[in-house]
Amino acid sequence: MISRRNFLVGLTGSAFLKNALAAKSPFLDSYWEEITKKFRIPDNYHYFNNGTIGLSPIMVSEAVKKEMDLMDANGNHENELLTIKPLANFLKVKNEEIALTHNVTEGINIVAWGIPLKKGDEIILTDQEHVGGATPWLHRAKREHLKIKIIPIKPTANEVLDTIKNAVTKKTRVISVPHIPCTNGQILPIKEIAQFAKSKNIWIVVDGAHPPGMLNLDITGLGVDAYSSCCHKWMLGPKGTGFLYVNKERQEEILPTFVGAGSDIGWDIMTQTPLYKGYSDSANRYFYGTQNSALYKGIVASIDFLNGIGMEKVELRCRSLAAMMQQEIIALGDRAEMVSPTEASSRSAIISFRLKNMDHNQFYAKAIENGFRVRSVPENGINCIRVSTHIYNQPEEIQKFIEWVYDIA
User: Fold this and answer.
1) What is the mean pLDDT of the chain?
2) Separation of alpha carbons 210 and 212, rounded Å
3) How far apart are CA 111 and CA 254, in angstroms?
4) What number of CA atoms fall less than 13 Å from residue 147's CA on the CB side?
5) Which residues, at least 6 apart from 57, have a Cβ–Cβ distance to it below 8 Å?
6) Are the beta carbons of 145 and 119 closer than 8 angstroms?
7) What is the pLDDT of residue 205?
8) With bands split at pLDDT 50, 70 and 90, how would you rate the model's confidence at 16?
9) Which of 2, 30, 302, 303 is a Cys-bridge partner for 237, taking CB atoms 3.0 to 4.6 Å apart?
10) 278-291 burial, b if ≥16 CB within 10 A, otherwise e?
């Protein structure tokens, strides 16, 4: 079996790993062991399913509980705008471009129903969409006679971009893709896709469930029209929290489907003609109604936690652990099939694979029995196992998991 030391030595030709080692190596165990202590992870439980739900640090849970107690004591309700500013700074966007949501699906629905489309217009999706990234478009297409075109995700960034370019027709109005698919964890070349889409006057919408909190993300720099994400995965925030980014220049075109308190600039039902005065002049037009503001305290706490470490260091840690995991699985040879890309720039902190002697459901059940929380991926017939690594994971956990996999493969 490949040792952790030999693995790193063997990959020193990789620019990514060189940078990782130069930046106070993400494998300085004593530092990361202290980070892990800030979570409530039970002993002998190895959590590799951060791609579904991130485990919140104790400080995040405590922030939510404290605010909930205050709300129940005095009825005070925090303004959502106090959360938007630190969130916008974290994502490197303008305050007025962020609306708080509950999850990725809600944001995709807002955009899918808000973009002006007509019968016969074409929407491009990939063959590795999450249900929340696909069904809003499928639903609207069914109701309004739009056309959905599905393209395959190829293993390299250049191939992905070429596939999209070749799929576009004169009827294409929207390209909606995941930044990192939940299936194989591939980082898609969103910036380049957005540049191409703009050159063709095509909307570019992104399911961004995974990058925030995993990558040192700059949404403005991507150049997309809309980006929907959540705070409960890699951001380690409260469950049921998310956000929608809409480029300020496109907000007048993406009309809200649902409105209420917070989404308008005024209304009046006491005039002779009842009046809705218009939408908020920010992404707050997509926000409405009473929310659980205690969760907002948790979002801010999770941002403070990650910023306290530094997102460059967080990204290096997450992706380096995943690279270690991938190399060990590849070393199984013909006993395993790697589903995730091996191209360094396309590899995230999510690694997916199959064992030749066992289907994904069997593997999942055995993994759970042995204290490894992974995810089975049945979506779109991919039928593989997904492993996600975050800052609370340790190299020793990966070695323990790999040794177990070697025993059953």
Assistant:
1) 93
2) 6
3) 7
4) 12
5) 38, 39, 236, 301, 302, 305
6) yes
7) 99
8) very low
9) 302
10) ebbebbbbbbbeeb
Of residues 390, 403, 251, the one with CA closest to residue 315? 390
How far, rounded to the nearest angstrom, does the alpha carbon of residue 203 sit from its chain's CA centroid? 20
Give the whole-angstrom CA distance, residue 174 versus residue 190: 14
Using CA atoms, how far residue 125 sits from 2, 17, 80, 134, 381, in Å, is 38, 32, 32, 7, 16
Nearest residue to 183 (alpha-carbon basis) of 405, 308, 339 = 339
- Residue 5 reports pLDDT greater than 50: no
pLDDT for position 77 = 79
Q: How far apart are CA 328 and CA 324, in angstroms?
A: 6
* Residues contacting 370, CB < 8 A, separation 6+: 404
Considering only CA atoms, give the Rg of the chain. Answer: 22
Compute the C-alpha angle 327/331/334, nearest 5°: 130
CA angle, 405 as apex, 365 and 17 as ends, to 5°? Answer: 120
Half-sphere exposure of 101 (CA within 13 A, CB side): 26
AA letter at 409: A
Structure tokens at 205: 């919408």
- Domains contained in the chain, CATH given: 4-37+310-408 (3.90.1150.10), 60-306 (3.40.640.10)
Read off the tokens for 2. Answer: 């490949």
Q: Residue 211 carries which side chain, given as an amino acid letter? A: P
Q: What is the pLDDT of residue 78?
A: 73
- What distance in Å separates the CA atoms of residue 322 and residue 320, rounded to the nearest whole number? 5
